[in-house]
Amino acid sequence: MDPVMSAVEKPPLRVLLCAPRGFCAGVVRAIDAVERALVMYGPPVYVRHEIVHNKYVVEGLKAKGAIFVEELSEIPFGTQAPVIFSAHGVAKSVPEDAANRNFFAIDATCPLVTKVHREATVHHKRGREVVLIGHAGHPEVIGTMGQLPEGAVSLVETAAQARTFTPRDPDNLAFTTQTTLSIDDTAEIVAILRERFPAMVAPHKEDICYATTNRQEAVKKVASEVDAMIVVGAPNSSNSLRLREAAEREGCAISVLVQRASEIDWNVFGSISSLAVTAGASAPEVLVEEIIDAFAERFNVAVETVYTVQEDVFFPLPRQLRPDAAE
Q1: What is the mean pLDDT of the chain?
Q2: Which residues lie below 8 Å from residue 144, measured CB to CB, with a gap of 6+?
């Protein structure tokens, strides 16, 4: 297909826009925290790890004066600049290290991740072995495991691992989960663990966050109705990867994850007549619009928004960044 066709030659394309999609309250809070710190204290503002997993967002904040590092040791000793921890959360050793270095630390951890941290800590204090369902190496998992002494948390990633996991005391177990997992995969793992260990204590409220759940449900609603699904998100974004998998599981023949319109393989989408578009919780709406514009250059698009639930969750900024903090 020609890269750009005239209006007469363009084939029709029905585009179903999933709602909700894109930024969640935790991501909005984290991005706002960096921007507010830049306004209140001026650049530079140091951020440990990508504030959220989205290159477009990170590059935008860099342009305003944010400096991203992976370790606190990369930050100049004695700096008076704010040091912000990302939305994914950090191990207990990180704020301790920041205090030892006399850094002005601001914690932008999503409150729903902090909830998981507190749950794990309470279970440990009550003498329970904590099972964490999640993906090894993800910053949120590293942060949650880092709330407790080494060996206190056992990571289970798959149903197969759930079937072979051997606890120290089967009658003294509790589980928590990463907030950005697949609802279906996690339910399977939990069901296996509960069948094997009936006394295992569950979270008071689901650990998978509302935004992850809502975005997956929106994808499930439309995936079987379209020829293809595009998820706007980063390859290291757990919740975005789960959205692509959810579409595939629901029978969508073409399901791809892209960061920008420039990544679209037009050979894959050449003969479709319907498309669904969604975005991971760290992907800004401007990138969704960019994707739709790219399709509009090649197709006569008719966009419909498909709603599953309205979101009204709001998290206040970290205390040091609220309007009265400077007074």
Answers
A1: 95
A2: 89, 113, 116, 117, 120, 132, 134, 153, 176, 178
- Helical segments of the chain, H only: 25-41, 55-64, 93-100, 111-125, 139-145, 159-164, 183-196, 210-223, 238-249, 266-269, 285-296
Domain that holds residue 58: 27-110
Which among 240, 317, 273, 292 is positioned nearest to 21, based on CA atoms?
A: 240
CATH number for 220: 3.40.1010.20
pTM of the model: 0.92
Q: For residue range 172-196, list pLDDT tens digits in order.
A: 999 999 999 999 999 999 999 999 9
Asked if pLDDT for residue 14 goes beyond 60, the answer is: yes
Per-residue model confidence as pLDDT tens digits over 17-37 = 999 999 999 999 999 999 999
Question: Active-site residues: which are they?
Answer: 140
Q: What percent of the chain has pLDDT over 70?
A: 97
Determine the average pLDDT of the residues in 81-96: 97
Q: Residue 1 pLDDT more than 50?
A: no
Gap between the Cα atoms of 46 and 136, Å rounded: 26
Do 132 and 175 form a contact (C-beta atoms < 8 A)? yes
Q: What long-range pairs does 206-209 form, CB within 8 A, spacing at least 24?
A: 207/112, 207/115, 207/116, 207/119, 207/176, 207/177, 207/178, 207/179, 208/177, 208/178, 208/179, 208/180, 208/181, 208/183, 209/24, 209/26, 209/110, 209/112, 209/179, 209/180
Burial class (CB in 10 A: 0-12, 13-18, 19+), 33: buried
- CA torsion sign for 107, 111, 117, 119 is positive
Give the span between the Cα atoms of 146 and 144, in whole angstroms. Answer: 5
Asked whether residue 162 is domain-assigned, the answer is yes
- Name the domain count of the chain: 3
Mark whether 53 and 78 lie in a shared domain.
Answer: yes
Task: Please give the structure tokens belonging to residue 67.
Answer: 């400096």
